[in-house]
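sorry to bug you again but im stuck and you know this stuff better than me. what follows is a protein written twice so to speak, once as letters and once as structure tokens for the fold. mainly i need to know what kind of three dimensional shape the backbone takes. anything you notice is useful, everything is just below:
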Amino acid sequence: MSTQENTHRQRKQISAAATAPMVALEAYTRTRVSRSDSHLIRLRVSAVNGCRFCTAMHRRDARKDGWDDARIAAAEDWPTHAGELSAGDLTVLRFADAVTHIHGEESVSDELWDDVVRHRGEAGTGQLLMEVVTINAWNRIAVTTRKDPGSLRGVHREDIDPVRPGH
């Protein structure tokens, strides 16, 4: 997706009452998914979905937790950076991709599911699924309503339009 300034007409945002169930789901996953796995999932899914608002937000949040540009880039584009990630992290990212690109019941193979269970446990796998579902829903809301990443507090220009060597 182009990193050009958003030239689309702004749209009315949906009400707080409409997003209240999403906020509750967000609170639920925040207490059950590790910060590291959450960053992996939120960065990757937001990048895959082309959500500039959520990608900028999660770059900012990852930086606050000590992530550097290389780790953020690896999460957002893991196939290009697979050698820089642990087996567990790669499994989480493959799972995030499979759930995001859902194409019927075979989207998440038994082998992938079992691999996630092996790395994160049975309960952890369910929590990761809810994290992926949550960020996919937020991405769809932000993209559809054209939320402006420049409106986020504490976001730097490089969070909105990162300079990446070779891109």
Observations:
- The two ends are 12 Å apart (CA to CA).
